[in-house]
Design brief:
- The complex is a heterodimer of chains A (115) and B (111).
- Chain A is 0% helix and 49% strand.
- Chain A is mostly beta strands and 115 residues long.
- Classes of the chains: A mainly beta (115), B mainly beta (111).
């Protein structure tokens, strides 16, 4: 069990560019979550997957954001036409299943800076 | 809506002092409650959790009891160490398991 990994750890981009982040969950974890954390705040839920199905999206997830988990393993989060307000830490988490109260295990995050 | 409110920081304590970080919640239904910790330069780690009323979660000397009557899940430790310096997040989940976090409380413990 190597834990949840995320790549890259840091990304600096110019406004208007597209960026893509990758998350590899703990193997055999069926659920995968994406969160966004800004400085001094707690993480905010963006979206989650049960295997390859995207089951819920937050209103925070604008049309410029898209997430996929094509084979039910790793996931990608793409932001198109980045804006300065997208600068944040993007966190991925995974859990074994859908049971209420399941522990979510978090990755180290990808820190995005939009110039 | 479903939300968590936790004690604002920062909190600064001397080593071996008693720690309380308050957390209250608002939820439709019966949430599961969590405390996560974020050490400097590291990711979020589960500290403890409780899934039903009157449950007590405990780990590394930290404790929190799920109090339905006061909708609270306060974090306590009897004697803090310098190594406990971190940011602590209270969180809840409901049926769909998307986690709602508080704003975090930064704890600094001085020798």
């Amino acid at each position: 069990d190597t834990g949840v990994s995320q790549d890259p750890r840091h990304k600096i981009t110019k406004r208007g560019q597209n960026v893509t982040f990758r998350c590899d969950p703990i193997s055999e974890h069926n659920r995968l979550y994406w969160y966004r954390q800004t400085l001094g705040q707690g993480p905010e839920f963006l979206t989650y997957f049960q295997n390859e199905a995207q089951l819920e999206k937050s209103r925070l997830l604008s049309d410029r954001f898209s997430a996929e988990r094509p084979k039910g393993s790793f996931s990608t989060l793409e932001i198109q036409r980045t804006e300065q307000g997208d600068s944040a830490m993007y966190l991925c988490a995974s859990s074994l299943g859908p049971q209420t109260g399941e522990t979510q295990y978090f990755g180290p995050g990808t820190r995005l800076l939009v110039l | 809506g479903n939300s968590v409110t936790q004690m604002e920081g920062p909190v600064t304590l001397s080593e071996e002092a008693f720690l309380t970080i308050n957390c209250t919640y608002t939820a439709t239904g019966y949430p599961s409650l969590f405390w996560y910790v974020q050490y400097p330069g590291e990711g979020l780690q589960l500290l403890l959790k409780a899934t039903k009323a009157d449950d007590k979660g405990s780990n590394k000397g930290f404790e929190a009891t799920y109090r339905k009557e006061t909708t609270s899940f306060h974090l306590e430790k009897g004697s803090v160490q310098v190594s406990d310096s971190a940011v602590y997040f209270c969180a809840l989940t409901l049926l769909n398991n998307d986690m709602r976090f508080g704003a975090g409380t930064r704890l600094t413990v001085k020798p």
